[in-house]
Every structure is written in structure tokens, then in C-alpha cells.
Design a protein that fits this description.
By secondary structure, the chain is of the alpha/beta class. It has five helices and six strands.
């Protein structure tokens, strides 16, 4: 299985608006559209999203393009959304998310999950089996694509970080502005 981990597009919260559960900005919606175009030729078996608006809105263009429903996964929310969490609580939640995805969708070829920058750092580490604390960080820019591949090599299960925080789909747009 290839697990695509995506951070949401630019949200009102990213530009300083202090609203609860912010929506995407106009730029964030454009980023989501460009991401969908980039991924249009990949056959996704399931599209997962955080329950927060900005993640769902980022998933919508791809879901529409691929004619797939968005499955909201309650534990994909951003760190601190529902109160303070300790580092160990976030790490445990991330490990549980990875376990749930592998259990439910392990027989699928491509799964994509839309979530949030701080949580995705822990999500990626959990998917890769990295147990370090705060001393190591996976950067997650808006609509950055990270791919974690779960493979079997010589009969042994392996994990391969295929791509990290790739924003190639945004290059043409950035050049045009």
C-alpha cells in the first residue's frame, strides 16, 4: 500500500485569522485544485480526511475528480484542536491512526489522507516507525505530498519513505503570479 499524506491548503488560520475551524483561503482552494490535477492519474482506493473544514475542503477537488467519497477519520485532527495534548498522547494517536489505516485498508493499493502540519509530522513518523520525540521534524507545507510505501521485500515487510513534502504541483502557479 502507498499512503499519501497531505497537509491541507492555505487556510484562514494560516494568514492570521483567529477563527475556530477555519476554511481555506482563495489561494488554499487553488492549491487544492492543483493538487487534484497533479494526482489525477493515480487510482486512489480511499480518500481520508480530518474532520476539520480545511482538510475536507482540500480533499474535495480530488474526490470530485476521482468520483470518490471522502471518509472522515475523526483522529486525523490537528494537535491541540480539542484541548492540550502531551507529546506522548499525540504520538500514540498517530500510531493508532496508522494502525487503523493499515488494518482497514492494508489490502488497498493507494490511500490518501488529508490532515494538518503539526499532526502530520507525528503521522509520518509513526508510519515510518520513527519513535523519536521533538528532535526530528518532517516539514509539511500547504498541500505538500508525502508518500509512505508499505512493501514486502524478500518476504520481509518494509517501510519506504518515497517522497516528502513535495509541492511540485504549485510551481507553475507560483511562476504565474
Amino acid at each position: 500500500m502507498d499512503l499519501y499524506i497531505i497537509r491541507h491548503g492555505e487556510s484562514q488560520g494560516n494568514v492570521g485569522s483567529n477563527v475556530e475551524n477555519p476554511e481555506l483561503t482563495q489561494l488554499g482552494r487553488k492549491q487544492a485544485e492543483l493538487l487534484a490535477l497533479r494526482l489525477r492519474n493515480i487510482k486512489f482506493d480511499v480518500i481520508l480526511s480530518s474532520p476539520l473544514k480545511r482538510a475536507v475542503q482540500t480533499a474535495e477537488p480530488l474526490a470530485s475528480l476521482r468520483n470518490l467519497p471522502i471518509t472522515v477519520m475523526d483522529n486525523l485532527y490537528e494537535v491541540g484542536t480539542y484541548g492540550e495534548e502531551t507529546l506522548s498522547e499525540v504520538q500514540e494517536r498517530a500510531k493508532n491512526v496508522v494502525s487503523e489505516i493499515r488494518e482497514k485498508y492494508g489490502d488497498k493499493e493507494n490511500v490518501i489522507a488529508f490532515a494538518h502540519g503539526t499532526f502530520n509530522n507525528h503521522f509520518i513518523k509513526a508510519a515510518c516507525g520513527i519513535t523519536s520525540g521533538e528532535d526530528f521534524n518532517f516539514c509539511q507545507e500547504n498541500t505538500g505530498v508525502t508518500i509512505v510505501r508499505f512493501i514486502v521485500d524478500d518476504g520481509q515487510p518494509r517501510i519506504k519513505l518515497e517522497l516528502a513534502n513535495c509541492g511540485k504541483h504549485l510551481e507553475q502557479y507560483k511562476a504565474s503570479i
